[in-house]
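Repro:
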Amino acid sequence: MTAATVGVGTLDPTNPAMFRLWREEILRYGDMDTNGHVNNVAIAQFCEGGRVAFERAGNLQQENPVLGLSLAKVTIEFLAEAHFPGKVRIGTRILGFGRSSCRLVQGLFQDGRCIATSEAVSVCFDTRARKAVPYPEAFKARALQLAGA
């Protein structure tokens, strides 16, 4: 997943300059596996934290308490080891919106080096009706301003 396709061009998620929305996570000793590097479950949790930061930055649930994001698809490409102690920075960017879905790309960095990339599809979900619904236009506009091109 060295390049993500958006519109007619491609974006390189290993390049931190392509991200405006960031979240930072502090590595914990318990994030390591028996090989001495940060494990895949911790990396997936860091991706999740970036997606939650995206949702919160756009005020989705604050303005629409019955709406949430449901993960429909996620892929993670592990590029390099990450080690404790330290921090991981997660950049999140919107690749595009569908009717009720949003495609995101993420880059995870430790000490300026990309350790993983991720692509995800999140669906706007009505928690009472238990079904996908269109994203509110106000959320889409804010989200694009914060994490778009």
